[in-house]
Prior knowledge:
The chain is α/β, with parallel strands linked by helices and 470 residues long. The chain has 2 domains: 15-106 and 143-208, GTP cyclohydrolase II (Rossmann fold), CATH 3.40.50.10990; 246-467, Dihydrofolate Reductase, subunit A (3-Layer(aba) Sandwich), CATH 3.40.430. It has helices at residues 69-73, 81-95, 107-110, 113-124, 129-135, 146-155, 167-174, 195-204, 211-220, 231-244, 276-287, 296-302, 332-335, 373-382, 394-402, 461-467, and strands spanning 15-24, 27-35, 41-47, 61-66, 98-103, 159-163, 179-184, 250-258, 262-265, 291-295, 317-321, 341-346, 359-364, 387-392, 408-414, 421-423, 440-446, 449-455. The strands form 3 sheets. The chain has a 9-stranded mixed sheet with strand order 13-12-11-10-14-8-15-18-17, sandwiched between helices. Strands 1-2-3-5-4-6-7 form a 7-stranded mixed sheet, sandwiched between helices.
Amino acid sequence: MAVDRTPSHTTAQVERVVETTLPTRHGVFRLLGYLGPSGQESVALVMGDDDDDDPQAPVPLVRLHSECLTGDALGSRRCDCGEQLDAALGIVAGHGRGAVLYLRGHEGRGIGLLEKLKAYALQDQGLDTVDANTELGHPPDARDYGPAAAMLHDLGLDSIVLLSSNPAKERAVEAHGITVQERRSLIVPDRVENAMYLATKRLRMSHDHPQGDLVWEQLLEGIVPDVVTDPADQVLVERYGPVVSAGPDLVLAQLAQSLDGFIASRSGHAEYVSGEQDREHLHRLRGLVDAVVVGGATVCADDCRLTVRAVPGQDPVRVVLDPRGRVPTTAHVLADGAAPTFWVLAAGTPAPTGLGEHVEVVRMPLREGGFDPAEVLRLLRRRGLRRVLVEGGGRTVSAFLDAGVLDRLYVTTAPMLIGDGVPGIRFDGAERLSGALRPTVRRFLLGDDVCTELWLTDVGHDSAARAHPA
Length: 470
């Protein structure tokens, strides 16, 4: 039947074609099929009586879910769509009244499946979702919510609580005559694989942040909140507040290793020694520094990106210590353009032509065993890069530790035994244990892993005591 309830300011027309039922693991929904103005077929999964005029009846919860074949059907972790759909069905079923509208024609924010896959390919090269869409000639969001509003009018759901983290979606349906009494965020846990996607939505498309992200944004701005009540916020402040308040000159280092002290197998395979929570921790450290330093051998072995993807934050300048120029020009750090990159070569080492504009070749004198860590830091400070993270590998971190230039060292220990492989921390130690390094330490759990934070200098020591009292 054709819909005759669409307000005059809503141009979209939809036709209700069929009604049946759909049993799901969340309960039995009424399933209504609609034909849109351009031939798109969409469905509404309805729970409860849509014509209930009882003033005591709960306000209907509504989720407008955009079609996503890769996320909804194939289980892709590049986005959070499939998990949001499942969560919305469960929330509406538990509430007892409302609907989940599954909107065809919204694939890839309205650009279509194949164009979305082309955008994926551009994202593989370092673009975010907004820039990938615009690079292909599309707007960041091409979705039309007129048909969705017409479906809601047909269902009698003219006044709703909207399940969405997207304020633009609220404005869009209100423009078509739907009253949104309240918008409730629908946030599912972030994953390493979709971190950049979610960060882009939050930073560039004004989607809601998880509550902990608001505290994290303060930390990124150099502000340590005095009072927080949420346990997740307290963890962020305790863990990273001392880093933020330590001052402008700070040198951190981080390694993940097995219980027997190896960061990779004998073949160099290191994906992954530690778990997802440790990788999130690493990305938070990247977000708090100006530059991240890595050895060329690590880039050759891991093809690391050294960007902030698991959490909101700005990518640091990437510094690749590669005396002999062994890093291939196809490596992400030299090819993707995601962040400015210093390729540090020894004098006399030839540099290829045709490098990206984001790459600057820097020459440094070579001493026995590699570049002088103190001279590397002086070079960076002359360029305004004063907060530095030394990320790997084992030889690079060990060289900075042995040179006595590290303020903090984070060593994450994973519950595995490798037996033989690439060692982690190694330096010339003392003859007797009385001469061993015994710095102040803090420990925290990262899932199944244990992170030990070693305070090698007293920078920020007072602030740490305040954030994490004994």
